[in-house]
Amino acid sequence: xxxxxxxxxxxxxxxxxxxxxxxxxxxxxxxxxxxxxxxxxxxxxxxxxxxxxxxxxxxxxxxxxxxxxxxxxxxxxxxxxxxxxxxxxxxxxxxxxxxxxxxxxxxxxxxxxxxxxxxxxxxxxxxxxxxxxxxxxxxxxxxxxxxxxxxxxxxxxxxxxxxxxxxxxxxxxxxxxxxxxxxxxxxxxxxxxxxxxxxxxxxxxxxxxxxxxxxxxxxxxxxxxxxxxxxxxxxxxxxxxxxxxxxxxxxxx
Length: 253
Hints:
alpha/beta; Rossmann fold; 9 helices; 9 strands; 16% strand; globular
């Protein structure tokens, strides 16, 4: 039984990825900031698939809380086979000359520093796996810089750089590392970015069929199940209606 840890598991990509691995017979460690959602997800997976689950409630921005929480992992499983660094967010959509510094801090602390805190703490356990795998959930924003995306785009470009660095530095240990970069996907992403403005969030996906969280989960599952000598270093995926952030086909346009 493989052991998989997913950050940001309380919604969107993280929740769907955790469920996909549970359906595949894996042992799950689910992490997030909302305990009630973690408890609900754990109960659901245990009931549906009889999955062994450990729930850890912490904010990846808090280094001390992250390290303390992840110290429980070795007591749950002797090794860790898969780490999915999914916790991340966009906050605001403003020009760089009027952007919120608090938003910038939140994105840098979550998308970059949080990813590093989690990965560093778990590397000793991952090294004990016969086929360690790290998935970093990036974004097309890391490839294509768009107006008012500034700091969010910068953090996701850095995720791409860190993924490549991990691949190089951990090569000697047989690690596979995949940077998965989704385009438009309808999750809580836009609702968080626009601070609960549901009308503005819905408009992002109007006139097209966006990706679903389950689509991303299937791609992660596909990569994981490739032969151990095969590593997809980078995968960029968009809905069919989106060529890139600048070219989107919407109904009626």
